[in-house]
């Protein structure tokens, strides 16, 4: 292998040449502490930056095995190292000067969630570490300024690696705390299953965020405090006893006046499918990891989804057992979202009245009297919510500020009162008894059929596929946009990017018209488990920044992809 001095010489030799001469530097170079790989060189100083990776041997990185001996702990350590490295390089970005993106040093920007990312990968078998980053190779105009790249690669980067990626330079206590928090979070997840709970929110948690556009904890917020009746104490392996609210399985209703913190509570539960970093305020807010936020989503496409448990006998005669539309209504979109969440294996639905189609949620007494059942294609969610739990084991947590009808079907009723939850189950049931509703006793719905076998769209069979990331909100494949705006538990643009790669990978390798969607998703998951996220892409031009989405979001993306034939 070439060494660092070879690289220095090669860079000096191309100084002042025209930009494409940088391409000759592709390859691996042995530096004292690591191997530097120049994986992809940008075409010009204004193009997407070049891709460079740093490979540190297990012996040099030297992280003790107890920091990464489970998948979750490994992801937490990778996340921690990535944040340390990002902080280390930030002051050096654009320190080297030039035109366009010259001097840029870039890596993933982590939010509050701890996600598996391609930017930092620790190999569990030998403890070696890979950092994938981007560097804007410097130029003046289009003339190579290789002295500037030499500064980056020889003066800036080695120090950043040294101080942020080697165990001996890091604070061992801080590293251990990352693993300890992760163990505690996983212990809460295990406790949910043992104790028959859908979620746990520790007393003292900070649920609200700073602003609508900042995910940092709100300062001076009212800390969470559990109602006495739902308080449980979990004995966590590292933190010891932690008390908080355990939300039981079944149907849970969150009511309360406007602005009392209902949606904030539900949002914390939505995000609780992920582990959060220390200091977030929601470190000990843990939700059933299969939970799916359900909302209405006007205009989405639906492909042969069996929504007949909610919608039947449409006036246009459309078959609702294999419902297809390019432009769903509020109620049909929400029905499809429920059924698709079932297909994705959820055991908890999270619904906020604020973002629901009213006619999907309830039908009031007067309306029922006036418009006979036979004339109404919609069986509202309230008529199915108990059945979902009793026949299919799917719990629901629902925010309802304005409809009392759900009092009749809820097992647990919480009132948010100035950001403090009160257990009003007994009182609400008593009041509800005085207001009987004619509960329609329906025959149990057939389990929706999940036999759809997707095939790639015809125009996809060519070899050039254009994949474009549209940030968190979507991805475009061969000019077909997949709109992920309302897939609310998708948290990061890198997750959306990974979904794009997953769609391409599935179309190229997994769809043959005989495998069902569930089988295809299972194969993708197995591949990600075995070969890592980077296996989603060819990797000819370096590894792109990707973060791992959940199974539920993989399903959601397939289901919103108009280019597929299902
Ligand atoms: P609701 O859904 O009941 O109308 P929201 O959850 O939207 O209420 O909360 C209303 C406002 O109160 C939001 O601006 C939110 O940030 C703030 N808020 C929520 N929970 C708390 C809390 N625990 N402490 C302080 N402010 C909070
Ligand atoms: Mg609200």
Question: TL;DR of this structure?
Answer:
The chain has 566 residues and is an alpha+beta fold.
Layout of helices and strands:
Layout (H helix, E strand, L loop, with lengths): L1 E2 H10 L13 E4 L4 E6 L9 E7 L1 H4 L9 H19 L15 E2 L13 E3 L6 E7 L3 E2 L2 E2 L1 H20 L6 H24 L1 E6 L6 E3 L2 E4 L13 E6 L3 E9 L2 E5 L6 H10 L13 E3 L4 E3 L7 E4 L17 E3 L4 H14 L4 E5 L5 H4 L3 H6 L14 H8 L2 E5 L12 E6 L2 E4 L1 H9 L33 E3 L4 E4 L2 E4 L9 H18 L6 H15 L19 H9 L7
Parallel strand pairs: 1-2, 15-21, 15-22, 17-20, 20-21
Antiparallel strand pairs: 2-3, 3-4, 4-7, 5-7, 6-7, 8-9, 10-14, 10-16, 11-12, 13-14, 18-19, 22-23, 24-25, 25-26
Helix pairs in contact: 1-4, 3-4, 3-5, 7-14, 12-14, 13-14
How much strand content do the residues show?
15-25%
**Strand runs, count:** 26
Mean pLDDT: 94
- Counting DSSP H or I runs of 4 or more residues, the number of helices is 14
Helix amount, in percent?
A: 25-40%
Q: State the shape.
A: globular
Distance between the termini: 49 Å
Largest sheet: 7 strands, mixed
Bound molecules: adenosine-5'-diphosphate, magnesium ion
Low-confidence stretches: none
What characteristics describe this protein?
alpha+beta, globular, single chain, 566 residues, binds adenosine-5'-diphosphate, binds magnesium ion
What does this structure look like?
- By secondary structure, this protein is an alpha+beta fold.
- The chain is 30% helix and 20% strand.
- It contains 14 helices and 26 strands.
- It has helices at residues 4-13, 58-61, 71-89, 146-165, 172-195, 262-271, 330-343, 358-361, 365-370, 385-392, 425-433, 493-510, 517-531, 551-559; strands at 2-3, 27-30, 35-40, 50-56, 105-106, 120-122, 129-135, 139-140, 143-144, 197-202, 209-211, 214-217, 231-236, 240-248, 251-255, 285-287, 292-294, 302-305, 323-325, 348-352, 395-399, 412-417, 420-423, 467-469, 474-477, 480-483.
- The strands form 7 sheets. Strands 1, 2, 3, 4, 5, 6 and 7 form a 7-stranded mixed beta sheet that branches. The chain has a 6-stranded mixed beta sheet with strand order 17-20-21-15-22-23, with helices on both faces. A 4-stranded antiparallel beta sheet has the order 13-14-10-16, sandwiched between helices.
- β1, α1 and β2 form a beta-alpha-beta unit.
- α3 (71-89) runs antiparallel to α5.
- It is globular and about 85 Å long.
- The two termini are 49 Å apart.
- The mean pLDDT is 94.
